[in-house]
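Running co-folding for aspartic acid.
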Amino acid sequence: MGLHMQVFIALLLGIKRNGHIFLGIILGVLVGIFAPQHLYPKAYQILDLIGQSFINIIQMVVLPLVISAIIIGISNIGDSKQLTKLGSKMLLYYGIIITLAVTIGATVALLLQPGVGAKALIDSNVIASVHDSVASAIEYQKENLVQIFLDVIPKNPFEALAQGKMIPIIIFVSIFAVALTRAGEISHPLVSFFESIFAATMKVTDWIMYLAAPGIFALTATAVGSFGIEVFQSISKFALAVCLALGIQFFIVYPLMLKLFSKVPVGKLFSAVSEAIMVAFGTASSSATLPLTITCCEKRGISNRVCSFVLPLGATLNMDGTALVQTIAVIFLAQMYGIDLTPLLIFEIAFLAIVASSTSAGIPGAGLITIALVLNGIGLTPQQLVIGFSLLFTIERFMDMLRTICNVTSDTIVAAIIADNENELNYELLCGEKQSEKA
Ligand code: ASP
């Protein structure tokens, strides 16, 4: 059976196991289509409240989870040789996945040419409604690479914590965790303390998942119900290119990576992480999905040592879906404005998309703000930028839900490959119906 069919069947099995979440998605889509927001604005306020509360409540556990997971992960790895080995493997696999993502994005955009003939017919209402987001994106565009690099080094870790800035937090916690492993026996009580925090956050995640069905229903309904079908027409070819490229990444690249670099059964892995995939779709946030991503992987046999190191870093730094969409979006705008796409410019766009996506937070809409960095390279006038952003914002939520699926799935693919390479994958748990009691 073809690999993509194995993925497809695995997803169906996963959906059957997590029918309540899937039902939430389907009902959300139906409500969004048949009872759109402009007809029932009051009802949508309530749906928005339910959806945002769900996102807030899972985000509540993300910080303690990321901090405790990285500390446990690094201290479990032990000596610096092991840490370098695991860290380099992780960077290598994440690097391959994201390079393939931008290559696929650029190829599909150049073949389908979604921007050619796309009309920039955006009325002033649309521009006004996305004004704030456009303003922050343009603000971001003014930052250069040096500034972005400087911003990720935390001057004050507590400030970064209070502001929930993930990359500076991860840098601080990783350095702190390596120092703890060097400190010897005296650090054991602190590591046990973080082990307790990790166990408690996993428990809270289990409880939160009882709210997944109504939460995902409300989020999906709000996303679909606020969608303007008229604007979609001028950007439908762009949406098609994104869906096609993300589909290739999901159904072809991921299974091939598993086949080439490990002996992990493709169907079993996709089925194991299907719950996280559905939540990623609903929340459009890889960071909010992280607790569930870890739970799914640990319950299905990927060791805690690999999960707690690879998944939190992946959820923050590895955004292959985002890089892919950014590449297509920028090529789309370049085509729309008749900018000459030389091979060098395409390479620059792909490279900047990798950098910009890695600096995106794992939250809804982050990728469309950081895209400004990639747009820097193609030289649009401020007016063209505003219109371009306004166009992209019209279908942003939907694109975000799809790219977040890839962002989350690729983390689990890399975790599974590394666990397999390191003999830290329990195949009995992955293949059987038995579930780990621990996670
Ligand atoms: N929403 C994405 C994520 O959380 C980031 C993005 O906006 O592309 O993975």
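Result summary
The radius of gyration is 21 Å.
The chain has 22 helices and no strands.
Job closed.
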